[in-house]
Amino acid sequence: MLSRAATPSEPRRKHTERVRIAFFSTHSFDRESFDEANARHRHDLHYFDARLGPATSVLARGFPAVCAFVNDQLNATVLTALSAGRTRMIALRSAGFNHVDLRAAQELGLTVSRVPAYSPHAVAEHTVALMLALNRKIHRAYARVREGNFALDGLLGFDLVGRTVGVVGTGKIGSVVARIVTGFGCRVLAYDIAPDPECRAMGVEYVPLDAIWSQSDIITLHTPLTPETRHTVDAKAIARMKPGVMIINTGRGALVDTPALIAALKEGHIGHLGLDVYEEEEQLFFQDLSSHVIQDDVFARLLTFPNVLVTAHQAFFTREALQGISATTLDNISAFEEGRRSGNELY
Prior knowledge:
Strand order of the largest sheet: 8-7-6-9-10-11-12
Mean pLDDT: 94
CATH topology of the largest domain: Rossmann fold
Number of strands: 12
Protein backbone atom coordinates (compact mmCIF):
# COMPACT_ATOMS: atom_id res chain seq x y z
CA MET A 1 0.00 0.00 0.00
CA LEU A 2 1.13 3.51 -0.75
CA SER A 3 2.72 5.12 2.26
CA ARG A 4 3.05 8.68 3.44
CA ALA A 5 6.29 10.53 2.82
CA ALA A 6 8.86 9.70 5.47
CA THR A 7 9.99 12.28 7.99
CA PRO A 8 13.75 13.01 8.17
CA SER A 9 14.08 10.55 11.07
CA GLU A 10 12.29 7.70 9.28
CA PRO A 11 14.18 5.20 7.13
CA ARG A 12 13.67 5.30 3.40
CA ARG A 13 12.81 2.27 1.36
CA LYS A 14 15.38 1.24 -1.20
CA HIS A 15 12.94 -0.28 -3.67
CA THR A 16 9.64 1.05 -4.93
CA GLU A 17 6.65 -1.18 -4.32
CA ARG A 18 4.17 -1.77 -7.10
CA VAL A 19 1.46 0.91 -6.78
CA ARG A 20 -2.10 0.66 -8.14
CA ILE A 21 -2.89 3.91 -9.92
CA ALA A 22 -6.29 5.02 -11.25
CA PHE A 23 -5.95 7.30 -14.28
CA PHE A 24 -8.90 9.53 -15.20
CA SER A 25 -9.70 11.41 -18.44
CA THR A 26 -7.40 9.14 -20.42
CA HIS A 27 -7.01 8.85 -24.17
CA SER A 28 -5.00 6.50 -26.35
CA PHE A 29 -2.00 8.82 -26.30
CA ASP A 30 -2.01 8.83 -22.48
CA ARG A 31 -2.02 5.05 -22.35
CA GLU A 32 0.81 4.72 -24.85
CA SER A 33 3.10 7.23 -23.16
CA PHE A 34 2.46 5.98 -19.61
CA ASP A 35 2.82 2.32 -20.56
CA GLU A 36 6.18 3.13 -22.11
CA ALA A 37 7.38 5.14 -19.11
CA ASN A 38 6.11 2.48 -16.71
CA ALA A 39 8.59 -0.09 -18.02
CA ARG A 40 11.02 1.31 -15.47
CA HIS A 41 8.58 1.65 -12.55
CA ARG A 42 6.32 -1.37 -13.11
CA HIS A 43 3.34 0.15 -11.31
CA ASP A 44 -0.17 -1.25 -11.79
CA LEU A 45 -1.89 1.22 -14.14
CA HIS A 46 -5.67 1.31 -14.59
CA TYR A 47 -7.12 3.68 -17.19
CA PHE A 48 -10.58 5.25 -17.10
CA ASP A 49 -12.02 7.31 -19.96
CA ALA A 50 -14.34 9.16 -17.57
CA ARG A 51 -13.51 12.52 -16.05
CA LEU A 52 -13.01 12.47 -12.30
CA GLY A 53 -15.92 14.02 -10.43
CA PRO A 54 -18.45 13.31 -7.69
CA ALA A 55 -20.19 10.61 -9.75
CA THR A 56 -17.00 8.84 -10.87
CA SER A 57 -14.85 9.05 -7.73
CA VAL A 58 -16.16 5.59 -6.75
CA LEU A 59 -14.04 4.15 -9.57
CA ALA A 60 -10.93 5.04 -7.56
CA ARG A 61 -11.99 3.11 -4.47
CA GLY A 62 -9.08 0.98 -3.27
CA PHE A 63 -6.50 2.78 -5.43
CA PRO A 64 -3.69 4.32 -3.32
CA ALA A 65 -2.87 6.79 -6.11
CA VAL A 66 -5.07 8.74 -8.52
CA CYS A 67 -3.71 10.45 -11.63
CA ALA A 68 -5.82 13.41 -12.80
CA PHE A 69 -5.77 15.84 -15.72
CA VAL A 70 -6.69 19.53 -16.05
CA ASN A 71 -10.46 19.12 -16.44
CA ASP A 72 -10.94 16.58 -13.65
CA GLN A 73 -12.75 17.84 -10.55
CA LEU A 74 -10.76 17.73 -7.35
CA ASN A 75 -12.95 19.75 -5.03
CA ALA A 76 -13.53 18.99 -1.35
CA THR A 77 -16.37 16.58 -2.10
CA VAL A 78 -14.32 14.50 -4.53
CA LEU A 79 -11.21 14.57 -2.36
CA THR A 80 -13.18 13.41 0.66
CA ALA A 81 -14.57 10.50 -1.35
CA LEU A 82 -11.09 9.58 -2.59
CA SER A 83 -9.67 9.69 0.91
CA ALA A 84 -12.50 7.49 2.18
CA GLY A 85 -11.62 5.02 -0.57
CA ARG A 86 -8.03 4.78 0.74
CA THR A 87 -6.41 7.07 -1.83
CA ARG A 88 -3.35 8.74 -0.35
CA MET A 89 -1.82 10.56 -3.32
CA ILE A 90 -3.12 12.75 -6.16
CA ALA A 91 -0.65 12.85 -9.05
CA LEU A 92 -1.52 15.63 -11.47
CA ARG A 93 -0.24 15.11 -15.00
CA SER A 94 -0.28 18.86 -15.61
CA ALA A 95 1.49 21.98 -14.44
CA GLY A 96 -1.68 23.83 -13.47
CA PHE A 97 -3.48 22.98 -10.23
CA ASN A 98 -6.30 25.52 -10.02
CA HIS A 99 -8.80 22.62 -10.24
CA VAL A 100 -7.61 21.20 -6.90
CA ASP A 101 -8.85 22.30 -3.47
CA LEU A 102 -5.41 22.26 -1.87
CA ARG A 103 -6.67 23.19 1.58
CA ALA A 104 -9.07 20.24 1.60
CA ALA A 105 -6.37 17.91 0.28
CA GLN A 106 -3.96 18.96 3.00
CA GLU A 107 -6.58 18.58 5.74
CA LEU A 108 -7.32 15.08 4.48
CA GLY A 109 -3.65 14.14 4.55
CA LEU A 110 -3.42 13.72 0.78
CA THR A 111 -0.17 14.46 -1.02
CA VAL A 112 -0.64 16.33 -4.31
CA SER A 113 2.13 16.46 -6.89
CA ARG A 114 2.28 18.01 -10.34
CA VAL A 115 4.46 18.20 -13.44
CA PRO A 116 5.84 21.75 -13.24
CA ALA A 117 7.84 21.52 -16.47
CA TYR A 118 7.57 18.97 -19.26
CA SER A 119 8.22 20.84 -22.50
CA PRO A 120 7.90 24.61 -22.29
CA HIS A 121 8.97 24.66 -25.93
CA ALA A 122 5.81 22.79 -26.94
CA VAL A 123 3.46 25.45 -25.56
CA ALA A 124 5.71 28.35 -26.58
CA GLU A 125 5.99 27.13 -30.16
CA HIS A 126 2.22 26.64 -30.39
CA THR A 127 1.77 30.16 -29.08
CA VAL A 128 3.91 31.57 -31.87
CA ALA A 129 2.15 29.29 -34.39
CA LEU A 130 -1.14 30.94 -33.44
CA MET A 131 0.44 34.37 -33.88
CA LEU A 132 1.71 33.51 -37.36
CA ALA A 133 -1.49 31.77 -38.46
CA LEU A 134 -3.67 34.66 -37.37
CA ASN A 135 -1.41 37.31 -38.85
CA ARG A 136 -1.04 35.64 -42.24
CA LYS A 137 -4.54 34.12 -42.05
CA ILE A 138 -3.24 30.62 -42.78
CA HIS A 139 -6.46 28.97 -41.58
CA ARG A 140 -8.57 31.00 -43.99
CA ALA A 141 -6.14 30.60 -46.89
CA TYR A 142 -6.11 26.82 -46.41
CA ALA A 143 -9.90 26.62 -46.59
CA ARG A 144 -10.00 28.88 -49.68
CA VAL A 145 -7.47 26.93 -51.69
CA ARG A 146 -9.24 23.64 -50.98
CA GLU A 147 -12.37 25.19 -52.50
CA GLY A 148 -10.51 26.43 -55.57
CA ASN A 149 -10.43 30.07 -54.44
CA PHE A 150 -6.96 31.51 -55.04
CA ALA A 151 -7.80 35.19 -54.43
CA LEU A 152 -5.66 37.09 -51.92
CA ASP A 153 -8.27 39.67 -50.91
CA GLY A 154 -8.77 39.67 -47.13
CA LEU A 155 -5.55 37.80 -46.40
CA LEU A 156 -3.25 40.79 -45.87
CA GLY A 157 -0.90 40.43 -42.91
CA PHE A 158 1.95 42.45 -41.42
CA ASP A 159 5.68 42.01 -40.82
CA LEU A 160 6.50 40.89 -37.29
CA VAL A 161 9.88 42.63 -37.33
CA GLY A 162 9.67 45.85 -35.36
CA ARG A 163 6.34 45.00 -33.73
CA THR A 164 5.91 45.12 -29.95
CA VAL A 165 4.99 41.87 -28.22
CA GLY A 166 3.77 41.96 -24.63
CA VAL A 167 4.49 38.76 -22.67
CA VAL A 168 2.47 38.48 -19.45
CA GLY A 169 4.32 35.96 -17.31
CA THR A 170 7.93 35.03 -18.04
CA GLY A 171 8.20 31.65 -16.41
CA LYS A 172 9.50 28.67 -18.34
CA ILE A 173 6.98 29.05 -21.20
CA GLY A 174 6.81 32.83 -21.36
CA SER A 175 10.59 33.16 -21.45
CA VAL A 176 10.78 30.77 -24.43
CA VAL A 177 8.11 32.81 -26.23
CA ALA A 178 10.13 35.95 -25.54
CA ARG A 179 13.23 34.31 -27.01
CA ILE A 180 11.40 33.20 -30.16
CA VAL A 181 9.79 36.55 -30.94
CA THR A 182 13.07 38.32 -30.18
CA GLY A 183 14.47 36.22 -33.01
CA PHE A 184 11.79 37.67 -35.30
CA GLY A 185 13.10 41.14 -34.51
CA CYS A 186 10.25 42.13 -32.21
CA ARG A 187 10.49 44.52 -29.30
CA VAL A 188 9.48 42.51 -26.23
CA LEU A 189 7.79 43.97 -23.18
CA ALA A 190 7.10 41.75 -20.19
CA TYR A 191 5.26 41.74 -16.91
CA ASP A 192 6.04 39.35 -14.06
CA ILE A 193 6.14 39.66 -10.29
CA ALA A 194 9.56 37.93 -10.48
CA PRO A 195 11.46 39.21 -13.55
CA ASP A 196 13.75 36.69 -15.24
CA PRO A 197 17.40 37.82 -15.46
CA GLU A 198 17.88 35.79 -18.66
CA CYS A 199 14.99 37.62 -20.30
CA ARG A 200 16.49 40.93 -19.28
CA ALA A 201 19.82 39.84 -20.73
CA MET A 202 18.23 39.22 -24.13
CA GLY A 203 16.73 42.72 -24.15
CA VAL A 204 13.25 42.11 -22.71
CA GLU A 205 11.88 45.26 -21.01
CA TYR A 206 9.91 44.68 -17.80
CA VAL A 207 7.05 47.17 -17.46
CA PRO A 208 3.74 47.50 -15.56
CA LEU A 209 0.65 45.85 -17.02
CA ASP A 210 -0.72 49.23 -18.14
CA ALA A 211 2.29 49.60 -20.43
CA ILE A 212 1.76 46.09 -21.81
CA TRP A 213 -1.85 46.97 -22.67
CA SER A 214 -1.14 50.36 -24.21
CA GLN A 215 2.05 49.64 -26.16
CA SER A 216 1.77 46.06 -27.43
CA ASP A 217 0.72 45.02 -30.92
CA ILE A 218 0.53 41.40 -29.73
CA ILE A 219 -0.24 40.28 -26.17
CA THR A 220 0.34 36.70 -25.00
CA LEU A 221 -0.62 35.27 -21.60
CA HIS A 222 1.52 32.80 -19.64
CA THR A 223 0.60 33.15 -15.97
CA PRO A 224 -0.93 30.51 -13.70
CA LEU A 225 -4.61 30.91 -12.83
CA THR A 226 -5.06 32.28 -9.32
CA PRO A 227 -7.73 34.51 -7.76
CA GLU A 228 -5.43 37.44 -8.54
CA THR A 229 -4.92 36.56 -12.22
CA ARG A 230 -8.52 35.57 -13.00
CA HIS A 231 -9.81 37.77 -15.87
CA THR A 232 -6.49 39.58 -16.18
CA VAL A 233 -7.78 40.62 -19.59
CA ASP A 234 -11.17 42.20 -18.94
CA ALA A 235 -13.12 45.05 -20.52
CA LYS A 236 -11.01 47.71 -18.75
CA ALA A 237 -7.74 46.15 -19.91
CA ILE A 238 -9.01 45.77 -23.48
CA ALA A 239 -10.09 49.41 -23.56
CA ARG A 240 -6.47 50.44 -22.91
CA MET A 241 -5.12 48.29 -25.74
CA LYS A 242 -4.27 49.44 -29.25
CA PRO A 243 -7.04 49.16 -31.84
CA GLY A 244 -6.40 45.97 -33.84
CA VAL A 245 -4.42 44.29 -31.04
CA MET A 246 -3.73 40.55 -31.26
CA ILE A 247 -4.38 38.55 -28.08
CA ILE A 248 -3.09 35.00 -27.56
CA ASN A 249 -4.00 32.80 -24.59
CA THR A 250 -2.34 29.40 -24.21
CA GLY A 251 -2.30 29.63 -20.40
CA ARG A 252 -5.62 29.11 -18.64
CA GLY A 253 -9.07 29.94 -20.01
CA ALA A 254 -10.15 32.12 -17.11
CA LEU A 255 -7.21 34.49 -17.57
CA VAL A 256 -9.53 36.28 -20.02
CA ASP A 257 -13.12 37.48 -19.71
CA THR A 258 -14.60 35.83 -22.81
CA PRO A 259 -17.76 37.99 -23.09
CA ALA A 260 -15.51 41.08 -22.94
CA LEU A 261 -13.40 39.63 -25.77
CA ILE A 262 -16.51 39.03 -27.86
CA ALA A 263 -17.72 42.59 -27.31
CA ALA A 264 -14.33 43.96 -28.41
CA LEU A 265 -14.29 41.67 -31.46
CA LYS A 266 -17.72 42.93 -32.49
CA GLU A 267 -16.50 46.52 -32.17
CA GLY A 268 -13.36 45.75 -34.17
CA HIS A 269 -11.08 46.76 -31.30
CA ILE A 270 -9.47 43.32 -31.15
CA GLY A 271 -7.96 42.52 -34.53
CA HIS A 272 -6.94 38.90 -33.91
CA LEU A 273 -7.66 36.39 -31.14
CA GLY A 274 -5.93 33.04 -30.64
CA LEU A 275 -7.12 30.69 -27.89
CA ASP A 276 -5.89 27.23 -26.92
CA VAL A 277 -7.84 27.30 -23.66
CA TYR A 278 -11.37 28.28 -22.71
CA GLU A 279 -12.95 29.02 -19.33
CA GLU A 280 -15.68 26.38 -19.74
CA GLU A 281 -13.60 23.93 -21.77
CA GLU A 282 -14.28 20.91 -19.57
CA GLN A 283 -17.63 20.47 -21.33
CA LEU A 284 -16.03 20.63 -24.78
CA PHE A 285 -12.36 19.82 -25.13
CA PHE A 286 -10.75 16.36 -25.43
CA GLN A 287 -13.86 14.80 -26.99
CA ASP A 288 -15.43 14.49 -30.44
CA LEU A 289 -18.60 16.60 -30.59
CA SER A 290 -18.67 16.90 -34.38
CA SER A 291 -22.11 15.29 -34.61
CA HIS A 292 -23.57 17.39 -31.79
CA VAL A 293 -24.88 20.94 -31.54
CA ILE A 294 -22.57 23.01 -29.34
CA GLN A 295 -24.66 24.06 -26.35
CA ASP A 296 -22.23 26.72 -25.10
CA ASP A 297 -23.53 29.91 -26.74
CA VAL A 298 -20.47 31.96 -25.76
CA PHE A 299 -18.09 29.48 -27.35
CA ALA A 300 -20.32 29.15 -30.43
CA ARG A 301 -20.25 32.94 -30.85
CA LEU A 302 -16.44 32.92 -30.74
CA LEU A 303 -16.35 30.51 -33.68
CA THR A 304 -18.32 32.93 -35.89
CA PHE A 305 -15.49 35.47 -36.11
CA PRO A 306 -13.11 35.08 -39.06
CA ASN A 307 -10.25 36.60 -37.04
CA VAL A 308 -10.52 34.11 -34.19
CA LEU A 309 -8.53 30.86 -34.15
CA VAL A 310 -9.30 28.28 -31.45
CA THR A 311 -7.40 25.05 -30.78
CA ALA A 312 -8.62 22.56 -28.17
CA HIS A 313 -5.92 22.63 -25.45
CA GLN A 314 -3.43 21.32 -27.98
CA ALA A 315 -0.40 23.46 -27.16
CA PHE A 316 1.21 20.86 -24.88
CA PHE A 317 0.68 18.03 -27.38
CA THR A 318 4.11 16.94 -28.62
CA ARG A 319 5.92 13.62 -28.27
CA GLU A 320 8.54 15.21 -26.05
CA ALA A 321 5.91 16.75 -23.77
CA LEU A 322 3.99 13.49 -23.37
CA GLN A 323 7.21 11.67 -22.54
CA GLY A 324 8.10 14.31 -19.96
CA ILE A 325 4.64 14.27 -18.39
CA SER A 326 4.50 10.49 -18.02
CA ALA A 327 8.06 10.17 -16.73
CA THR A 328 7.70 12.93 -14.13
CA THR A 329 4.26 11.76 -12.97
CA LEU A 330 5.47 8.21 -12.34
CA ASP A 331 8.66 9.52 -10.72
CA ASN A 332 6.48 11.55 -8.34
CA ILE A 333 4.48 8.46 -7.39
CA SER A 334 7.59 6.31 -6.94
CA ALA A 335 9.19 8.96 -4.74
CA PHE A 336 6.13 9.11 -2.50
CA GLU A 337 5.99 5.31 -2.20
CA GLU A 338 9.68 5.29 -1.22
CA GLY A 339 8.99 7.85 1.50
CA ARG A 340 10.87 10.74 -0.08
CA ARG A 341 9.94 14.00 -1.76
CA SER A 342 10.29 14.46 -5.51
CA GLY A 343 10.31 18.25 -5.25
CA ASN A 344 7.07 18.51 -7.24
CA GLU A 345 4.69 18.39 -4.29
CA LEU A 346 2.35 21.36 -3.87
CA TYR A 347 2.86 21.64 -0.09
